[in-house]
Write a structure and sequence with these properties.
Shape: globular
Bound molecules: zinc ion
Order of helices and strands: HHEHHEHHEHEHEHE
Structural class: alpha/beta
Number of helices: 9
CATH class of the largest domain: Alpha Beta
Helix content: 25-40%
Strand order of the largest sheet: 1-6-5-2
Number of domains: 2
Largest sheet: 4 strands, parallel
CATH architecture of the largest domain: 3-Layer(aba) Sandwich
Length: 223
């Protein structure tokens, strides 16, 4: 049920679906209509890239509605989309990863200057939603991303791996966490993966710190 204030607000500023513009009920917190939601193409098995991680899961395919939602979330300052997008991750974990006992969630860090420009790290916002639902701690300062990488967009597979080689390291403050994370099971989290290169490089940094099992979960897999 929408509250009086929601109804009043909706009268002056009608809520619209962020994808198709359709008018929504005053209490639609997702801001996405049912029709758009239903067009997300879900994946129900690990994606077939392993690299140095034990396994990578993706909730859905990076196209159509989900692609647009992720784009708005990252580049249009629509931070509130962390909630519905995070819910996709929570539902996926409930459905497929209930038996996995992760010790920590580690969102893939952005390079510092980029995060400053954007004002937030989208992976971290998603990790907060998931961490709260799973009741798992999130480590945001453990790994650091070095400056040298170019955007991955437009590079081929080999160039992507090369571009990211050595891109992550355990941060100065993260070094204090090394005794805590050694031998533990970690879930890396990001919004998107294509070749898995970013997840792979980040996993490498965690391996050097003695993490024993590293898994990854992303919202979307770009083919
Ligand atoms: Zn819609």
């Amino acid at each position: 049920m929408a509250t009086f204030w929601e109804l009043l607000l909706n009268f002056f500023f009608p809520l619209q679906c962020v994808i198709c513009g359709r008018l929504l009920a005053a209490d639609n917190k997702e801001r996405i209509c049912g029709d758009c939601w239903s067009r997300i193409i879900y994946l129900n098995r690990p994606i077939d890239i392993k690299l140095s991680l034990e396994r990578i899961w993706s909730v859905a395919v990076y196209e159509g509605v989900l692609k647009e939602l992720i784009h708005q979330f990252k580049y249009k300052e629509r931070k509130y989309l962390a909630s519905p997008l995070g819910k996709l991750l929570v539902d996926f974990v409930d459905e497929y990863l209930k038996e996995e006992r992760f010790d920590y969630i580690v969102p893939i860090p952005l390079e510092k200057a980029r995060q400053k420009k954007r004002g937030y790290n989208q992976a971290e916002l998603l990790a907060r939603v998931l961490g709260e639902a799973m009741n798992k701690p999130i480590l945001t300062d453990l790994v650091e991303r070095r400056k040298k990488t170019k955007p991955q967009f437009g590079l081929n597979r080999e160039e992507r791996f090369e571009n990211l080689s050595g891109a992550f390291e355990i941060s100065k403050t993260g070094e204090e966490d090394i005794p805590t994370i050694a031998g533990k099971k970690i879930l890396l989290l990001d919004d998107l993966t294509t070749t898995g290169a970013t997840l792979d490089e980040c996993a490498r940094a965690l391996r050097t710190a003695g993490v024993s099992e590293i898994y990854a979960l992303v919202l979307a897999h770009g083919m």
